[in-house]
TrEMBL record:
InterPro entries: ATP_synth_b/b'su_bac/chlpt. This is CF0 subunit I of ATP synthase. It comes from Zygnema circumcarinatum (Green alga). F(1)F(0) ATP synthase produces ATP from ADP in the presence of a proton or sodium gradient. F-type ATPases consist of two structural domains, F(1) containing the extramembraneous catalytic core and F(0) containing the membrane proton channel, linked together by a central stalk and a peripheral stalk. During catalysis, ATP synthesis in the catalytic domain of F(1) is coupled via a rotary mechanism of the central stalk subunits to proton translocation. GO terms for cellular component: proton-transporting ATP synthase complex. The gene is atpF.
Length: 180
């Protein structure tokens, strides 16, 4: 112990000795261990860091490729969406135009049906009117014939009957002579 005290008190040995302060010795020990690790582990550490850097770069490249693929797919999907929207608008416009055409055709067909029904009604009315007129004529003719027969029966005697026959025979003879 005396030597130790002597060395501690001596000017030549002031930098060398046992340091019992744990905080100072731990820092020195830590610095020595890190230095040894850096010196001897430099190759291993460099290889590990290089491998890690390559893995990170590869992962970033893969992520960029996937990002580019996703962007391309998104652009393609957007283009298909635009095409679908355009097609849907075209279908809608065509549908509206077709609906207008069919509406006009339906109106024309309804007008034509209405005109045909009106013509049919008018034809039916004319037919019924002609039939009614014909029935009235027949009835009038029948009544006139009956009246004439009644009149002839009451007024016609033998002499008048003979005169009428002679008159008609003369009429027929004059017609025959005109024809010849």
């Amino acid at each position: 112990m005396g030597l130790l005290i002597y060395l501690q008190n001596s000017h030549l040995a002031s930098g060398f000795g046992l340091n019992t302060n744990l905080l100072e010795t731990n820092l020195i020990n830590l610095a020595v261990v890190i230095g040894v690790l850096v010196y001897f582990g430099k190759g291993i550490l460099t290889t590990l860091l290089n491998n890690r850097r390559e893995t990170i770069i590869s992962t970033i490249r893969d992520a960029e490729e996937r990002y580019q693929e996703a962007t391309d797919k998104l652009n393609q999907a957007y283009a298909r969406l635009q095409q679908a929207k355009t097609k849907a608008e075209e279908i809608r416009v065509n549908g509206l135009a077709q609906m207008e055409i069919e509406k006009e055709e339906l109106i024309k067909a309804a007008d034509e049906d209405s005109r045909r029904l009106e013509d049919s009604k008018n034809a039916t009315l004319r037919f019924e009117e002609q039939r009614a007129i014909e029935q009235v004529r027949q009835k009038v003719s029948q009544l006139a014939l009956e009246l004439a027969l009644e009149t002839l029966k009451t007024r016609l005697n033998r002499d008048l009957h003979a005169q009428m026959i002679d008159y008609h025979i003369g009429l027929l003879q004059s017609m025959a002579s005109v024809i010849d």
